[in-house]
Amino acid sequence: MTITTCIFDAYGTLFDVTAAARQAAAEPAFADIAQDWPVLAEYWRQKQLQYTWLRAVTGAHDDFWTVTQQGLDWALEKTGHQGNAALRARLLALYWELEAFGEVPQMLQRLKAGGLNTAILSNGSRAMLDGAVKSAGIAGHLDDVLSVDAVGIFKPSALVYEMVGQRFGCAPGQVLFVSSNGWDAAAATGFGFETAWVNRGQDPVDRLPWIPAHVLGDLTGIPALAGV
After folding, report:
1. Catalytic position from the list 9, 16, 206, 218
2. Whether 9 is catalytic
3. Which of 8, 161, 202, 225 has the highest local Cβ count within 10 Å?
């Protein structure tokens, strides 16, 4: 089936989730995380994801911004930086201005030039996503930004993936879904999407009932997979 629509996860896929901790660590005021910012960033991301899964399973949905703050608080305590209110505030502020990976603008431009629909489908709140898209300067390359705010549950619920067909009127097989999260790409495969896992860290494939159709090191190969 011909691909008509390319859908992207946001955090870790289009936007570098480590950028906030990396940028803060480079600022003199926060030199105390200069050595351990990668660990802090990893813990923050792990807990952010874990809290979305737990909330989805238990039906205790909350705004992704709340989950992001809770994940950071756990990570700060784990790394011994709890109580540093200025650091916490700076990291949260930077999260609204995450850098896009370098290949993102040109990749999206190629997809649009090829006549494809392009959109984000993310656990992020709409306000957070709009901030990141604006900061990265990619709004002109996207047809829409779809947030789980509309359905009140986090991925990998099928209710989230269903939003794509509802928005673009396409069958699952016409969608190329791209995510840096192996579990997300796997669940989207189970839903019926053509999938690509952007495995920048060269991680093992998750042991789940489904596997991503394609595994890439970055986003540069997405237009070719989409047929443009």
Report:
1. 9
2. yes
3. 8
